[in-house]
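Now read the record:
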Amino acid sequence: MDFEFLTKIKVFKGIDAEDLEKLFDWLGYEIRRYSKGDIILMAGDKVSSMGIVLTGSANIESNDVWGNKSIFDNVVSGQVFAEVYACANDEELMVDVVANESCEIVFLKMSKIFDSEDYTAHYQDKFASNLLKIMSLKNLNLSRKIYHVSSKSIRGRIVSYLSYLSRKLESKIIEIPYNRQQLSDYLCVDRSALSNELSKMQREGLIKYNKNKFEIISEYDFEI
């Protein structure tokens, strides 16, 4: 386990490698490896461990019985998932976690996290504080997706999503973490309709794109 690498992850901010190793030993952990398309966690599962992506990436997805898919998030190296369910302990997962590529995940057990009487070191408090911040940010991300898909038009959803990324990265040239099918799933639109609208926006001189790289050309016309 590369604890020096883990110290750079937000959920472990302010905890040095030596204390981090003690934290992991205190909580308990397991490392697993997955290939692209593997189901890491499935809707209906009850989990007691938080997942941390060491390498690769995974998608948080919702799949219904008719085969319709919606992507809620893409988690990459250094990010966490299932932390809310792990802390709730007895709640069933409402989503699937699927490997987006070959990835390595460490699962950190959370059963002791709310036992404050067992806290004897500052790094335990620091981890709990960091985790609360991460959960808050995840809630904001979910609210953000709801905002993106609130528009009734496909163009409105595209504009909302690309505008957010442009502001976040402070650049008109952005690279999104999704391919076309994944982007259509994330925005809850038909893939063909999404591709047609992107082509139309490019012809109108609003954007340029190649695969998952986009450039916003006309900032004024781009606003809804």
About this structure: Residues 28 and 58 are 22 Å apart (CA to CA). The mean pLDDT is 91. The first helix runs from residue 3 to 6.
